[in-house]
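Aim 2 progress update. The chain analyzed this quarter is reproduced below.
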Amino acid sequence: MFVQPKINADLPPAEKLVTLGEFLGWYPDGYEGRFELHHGVIIKMQPTGPHEQVAGFLASKISVYIERFNLPLFIPRQGLIKAINTDKSAYIPDVMVLDNAAVRNDEPLWQRRSTITQGATVKLAIEVVSTNWQDDYLLKLGEYEKLGIVKYWIVDYLGLGGKRYIGDPKQPTVSIHHLVEGKYTVATFQGQDILQSPLMPELNLTTAQIVEVGQ
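Predicted structure tokens:
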């Protein structure tokens, strides 16, 4: 179903699939809402308060890490990732770590539309799981893998995902995906496990700490 957020009088008709260009033209500059484009359909993202607390906590920890080690990276407040080989899908990660030089030199849509088209520009994408957990474990994982995003975290702080992903009985899990020869490998972390990511080897963050923020 086409979602019609009440922010613009010139929305496309409900039966019309939208291209990325139309979506970006419709999306007003500076608007604080969050919308994604899934196969031509505008999807309104409605995160809960705890979801936003977890995302903000992760962004804060990673920002401090970037500053501490003077890494040539930054975290945008909000930005889109265009899906590969289509102009009808674009996603907003809950946290996205970008390469400064790549944004400046390789991203033609960044200056005007804060949109990423090259997977190499994204050093880390993080999705905090909500009730539509299939999007994070299936849809976005596949899209980010095809695009070539080297690191993808799925932060399932409520243990909502399928048992095949987080075990039985289900429990809060952080799944860290790393791109190897074009395919994601995955390591899962629960409880007091310290997250292990080559991008930030000294982060010293546990799954339990993340879960506590969202309670």
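The radius of gyration is 17 Å. The helical segments are 20-26, 49-68, 100-106, 110-113, 133-147, 163-166, 207-213. These observations will guide the mutagenesis experiments scheduled for the next reporting period.
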